Amino acid sequence: MTLQASGDGGEDMDAQRKIELLGEAAQYDVCIACGTHASRRLDDLGRWIYPAVLPDGRRINQLKVLQTNACRNNCYYCAQRAGRDGRRAAFAPDELAALFDALRRRGLVAGLFLSSAVADDPQLSMDRMLATVEILRRRYGFTGYIHLKLLPGVSMAHVEQAIRWADRVSLNLEAPSPEYLGRIAPDKRFDDILRPMRWAHDLIRASDRALVTAGQTTQFVVGAAGESDRDILAVVSRLYREVDLRRAYFSAFQPIEGTPLEHEPPASPLREHRLYQSDFLMRKYGFRFEELVFDAHGQLPLTDDPKKIWADAHPEAFPVEVGRATRELLLRVPGIGPRSADRIVHGRRQRSFASLQDLARVGVNTVRAAPYILLGGRRPPYQLALW
């Protein structure tokens, strides 16, 4: 199979070279949690194939690729920004669909993550992406997982079609406010991003796929615009309430040569990690945004994980009696997660948890949990003083 496309110098580019280029370019659209850009880019099966965890917990290999890396926008942090030197390429919808089907039949991939730069008009760019996934669904009969990026400024009709063909849609908010977005992406309008997200929420709720769709997600570039962690997480919390956001992704800013921000310092990967931990507290542990602990500058402390920071700031809540505490209270204990909390609640109907070893068997991190719990009314024997 020989697929042709034009490169930046006008020469033909075969499908293998093109997918190398557009697969590598897709690394900046995050679809997995923490990790360096290098770990996101490389995989045993090839540069453009990523391991992915689906919303139902299944793991698949996913082709992650751009429809094109030619962009009219001048985002200051972006490797694909207008005016930056580099090879440009684009897949026609039938080309990319055929290539994906060939990879799928070889057993290399089972899902697709499709994004794109805005080559000309966002409506036309979105048309090409939608045509690709429609060909996959109709011509090739693909019924597997598709995550489709929405582009800023697209119409409601585009969003409706995306929800029809894709399992999950997402739109990169990038920054937590119009002011911060303007500092790093002067060609983008904040409302052009929020509006399609609201449409997606309403259309998903009204769709007959509402019970099976994986909903929508978003992504933030962390540390490029001078925003605080509080700024980011306040918006994330609002999006969970207002548009039923399924999750947020955070990408620590890394300066790229040939961009206006190339000399700016990179954001700490640990900061990205703390944002993911705090997001998990809100999504999985029942924490409200207002309960998160920030420093005087609105940043999450890097010294320890946000849950332990909260626990140390609320001595009145501890120690917790493991044998009687509700699941909600157990989730406040450092070292106890949703799975281990469920195992404790169900397991104590048949037996008591009398030792740290008993807790370890159900997945509790007993080193972290010990200072905050009681077992049968007693503190674990080798617990250090908390205060």
Topology, please?
Blueprint: E1 4-6, E2 12-14, H1 15-25, H2 37-41, E3 49-53, E4 59-66, H3 93-105, E5 111-115, H4 122-138, E6 145-149, H5 156-165, E7 168-170, H6 178-184, H7 190-206, E8 216-222, H8 229-242, E9 247-252, H9 269-284, H10 306-313, E10 320-321, H11 327-330, H12 338-347, H13 356-361, H14 366-369, E11 373-374
Radius of gyration: 23 Å
Residue share in helices? Answer: 25-40%
Strand order, largest beta sheet: 3-4-5-6-7-8-9
Which strand-content bin applies to the residues? 5-15%
Query: Helix count, per DSSP?
Result: 14
**Content-based structural category:** alpha/beta
Shape: globular
Mean pLDDT: 87
The low-pLDDT segments are 1-11, 33-46
Span of the ends, CA to CA? 68 Å
Elements, N to C (H/E)? EEHHEEHEHEHEHHEHEHHEHHHHE
How many strand units?
11
Characterize the main sheet.
7 strands, mixed
Textual characterization of the structure:
- The chain is an alpha/beta fold.
- It contains 14 helices and eleven strands.
- It has helices at 15-25, 37-41, 93-105, 122-138, 156-165, 178-184, 190-206, 229-242, 269-284, 306-313, 327-330, 338-347, 356-361, 366-369, and strands spanning 4-6, 12-14, 49-53, 59-66, 111-115, 145-149, 168-170, 216-222, 247-252, 320-321, 373-374.
- The strands form three sheets. It has a seven-stranded mixed beta sheet with strand order 3-4-5-6-7-8-9. The chain has a two-stranded antiparallel sheet with strand order 1-2.
- Strand 8, helix 8 (229-242) and strand 9 (247-252) form a beta-alpha-beta unit.
- Helix 5 crosses helix 7.
